[in-house]
Design goal:
Elements: E1 5-8, H1 11-23, E2 29-32, E3 49-51, H2 56-59, E4 64-67, H3 76-83, E5 87-89, H4 91-98, E6 103-107, H5 112-125, E7 130-134, H6 140-143, E8 150-154, H7 157-161, E9 170-173, H8 188-196, E10 205-208, E11 223-225, E12 232-237, E13 240-245, E14 248-252, H9 261-276, H10 281-290, E15 299-304, E16 307-311, H11 318-329, E17 336-341, H12 350-353, E18 362-366, H13 370-374, E19 380-382, H14 386-396, E20 402-405, H15 418-430
Parallel strand pairs: 1-2, 1-4, 2-3, 4-5, 6-8, 6-9, 7-8, 9-10, 10-11, 16-20, 17-18, 17-20, 18-19
Antiparallel strand pairs: 12-13, 13-14, 15-16
Helix pairs in contact: 5-9, 5-10
């Protein structure tokens, strides 16, 4: 019996879903509220595309809707369809139905892409054919193949909302801080509830023991990571810090090419997940010694006249900004000048206030919600654009200082995305006279 299916929302994820369904004998209808949806030109001719406002009555005539992560399940049309018994899923749930190989999953507010990249590289270093996909920007259905030995998925709260049967050999919530609260009615507990769905069918639950929000409500988990030597942690050997497992040193912190305490935690989480896949310690260590980090994630752009300029444009929430500052302050001779601003997504910026005048000497604010950041304290200045903030920073820095772009905000007020923002920042810094 053919299941009457519609894909709601086109774009990269929706187009991937359409092509996957067609390969498996289902030709879906496609709905998109936009007049010119991304990917429309690549939509197979066999699919009917319906544009404009969603109709609950019309959607209620389908057996199943595959909804893109950018669409809230609270939309009235989706609610009406659900009330009529229509199954509402996402592409990760489709992935779960067809996947035959072991999978590990990673969610959290910050560090997801770094961790999944580390784990996939570790698996590949061990000779495994590993598929990497999900929220990292590679649709999971695009990497689903019969010859895969394993999969590593980055999972957003939006993707997890429509996922119910995904079995994971290892799963972790890296950390939780305010993000996407505009989608969750300003309620952190709704955001947390969506994240916790990753543990529903996980064999090994791995938590951050320094962040209680990452621990399942029943308190049960397989392993944890954190700063001490317990489980996956950090321990001293010959007065040097080492990443450790159950107190046994396995890799020197000084051997990491990724910088900061937050990246040490990312490395520990990656080790725990790689262990769940059966990846050897030797393969893990080879990757830890060579991985230099992802673009736009606390990457050194340039050192000029004794001043280091860092691009952490991916810091799109308060928690990631705090982590970036904490990672750079160790051993710093001079000041940290922070560039922040953009779309705040309903976050509470107050935690940044505690940095001002201490870890952060001056915060240069820009973008739509830059004024809200400016109000946090006197150690701030407001500019209309990031370019103006960069120019001002260049005029006041002195040797030993760090200028850090870690905006704590989304970028879509003035840029195409965090990559575009980071690229433009890097170009500005490279072009300083």
């Amino acid at each position: 019996m053919t299941v009457k299916t519609a894909v709601i929302g086109l774009g990269k994820s929706g187009l991937s879903t359409v092509n996957f369904l067609i390969r498996n004998g289902i030709v879906p209808d496609v709905y998109d509220t936009r007049e010119h949806p991304a990917g429309e030109e690549n939509l197979p001719e066999s699919c009917r595309l319906v544009k404009g406002e969603l109709s609950g009555e019309l959607l209620g005539t389908y057996d199943e809707l595959v909804v893109g992560p950018g669409l809230a399940l609270s939309l009235p049309a989706l609610q009406e369809a659900a009330s009529q018994g229509v199954s509402i899923i996402g592409d990760i749930e489709l992935f779960a139905r067809y996947c035959q190989a072991p999978v590990v999953g990673v969610t959290g507010s910050n560090g997801k892409s770094t961790v999944v990249t580390l784990v996939s590289l570790m698996a590949e270093a061990a000779g495994l054919n590993c598929g990497l996909g999900g929220n990292i920007g590679i649709p999971a259905l695009d990497v689903l193949a019969e010859d895969r030995d394993c999969y590593v998925l980055e999972l957003s709260s939006f993707e997890l909302e429509t996922t119910s049967s995904l079995r994971l050999v290892g799963a972790t919530i890296l950390n939780l801080s305010e993000d996407h609260l505009d989608r969750y009615d300003g309620k952190m507990e709704l955001y947390l509830r969506a994240k916790q769905r990753i543990f529903a069918h996980a064999d090994r639950i791995i938590v951050n023991r320094e962040d209680v929000a990452t621990i399942p409500p029943n308190g049960h988990y397989f392993a944890s990571f954190g700063g001490s030597g317990d489980s996956y942690g950090i321990t001293l050997k010959d007065n040097e810090e080492w990443l450790s497992v159950a107190g046994t040193p396995v890799f020197p912190v000084s051997g990491l090419k990724i910088y900061g305490r937050h990246n040490q935690m990312n490395a520990l989480a990656a080790m725990a997940l790689a262990d769940a896949l059966g990846v050897s310690r030797e393969a893990q260590n080879r990757v830890l010694s060579s991985f230099a980090g992802l673009p736009h994630r606390c990457r050194l752009v340039r050192e000029r006249n004794g001043v280091r300029w860092y691009n952490d444009s991916k810091a799109t929430n308060v928690g990631s900004t705090l982590a970036a500052v904490a990672g750079l302050k160790s051993g710093l001779r001079g000041r940290i000048i922070l560039l922040a601003g953009g779309l705040g997504k309903g976050q509470d910026f107050t935690p940044i206030k505690n940095l001002l005048g201490h870890e952060v000497s001056l915060m240069l604010c820009f973008g739509r919600d830059g004024g809200m950041l400016r109000e946090l304290g006197p150690e701030t200045a407001l500019f209309e654009t990031m370019a103006e903030a960069v120019e001002y920073a260049d005029g006041i820095v002195r040797p030993g200082d760090v200028v850090l772009l870690a905006p704590a905000c989304a970028s879509f007020d003035q840029f195409k995305g965090f990559e575009d923002r980071g690229d433009k920042f890097a170009a500005m810094v490279e072009n300083l006279a």
